[in-house]
Amino acid sequence: MDIKNIPRYIKKSIKRFPVVSSMLSVGKLKSRKIKNRMPRAVCVVGSDKRSRRWIKNNRSALKSINALCMVVNVKSKDHFQSIKSLAPNVDFQALNGDVFYKELKIKHYPFLLNKGYIRQ
Fold first, then answer.
1. Which residues of 87-108 are buried (b: 16+ CB within 10 A; e: fewer)?
2. What domains, with CATH codes, occur in the chain?
3. Strands in 39-110 per DSSP E
4. Whole-prediction pTM value?
């Protein structure tokens, strides 16, 4: 799947858990410009402590840019709901995120894709 198809892909939100993205893991990445621009800001997180802290620290910004947060590694629906509760005014979807590695060679999350840039 091409990264440009993410908006259509998110309509296929996963209803079964766990959600496992085998090509992505929690970690650090360098901010950089990317070729593909998303039609909407997208953040990618997991259910780990680092992702939860990142969501809490960035929830106001995520809301202000109308970001869609993709939860790419999460054990259960209860864990997913607890992540959503960290930023109740932000849209969340549970999805496999391996497309980010395949298309952009991104290995680690949490991150934000916005206006042609990726950053943590």
1. beebebbbbbbebbbebbebeb
2. 3-119 (3.40.30)
3. 42-46, 68-73, 91-94, 108-109
4. 0.87
Residue 45 has, within 13 A of its CA and on its CB side, a CA count of 31
The per-residue pLDDT for range 32-73, each reduced to its tens digit, is: 998 867 788 999 999 999 999 999 999 999 999 999 999 999
Give the three-state DSSP class for 98: helix
- Helices and strands (DSSP H and E) totals, the chain: 4, 8
Q: For residue 38, what pLDDT is reported?
A: 76
**Residue in 16, 36, 41, 40 with CA at minimum distance from that of residue 95:** 16
Q: 47, 79 in Cβ contact below 8 A?
A: yes
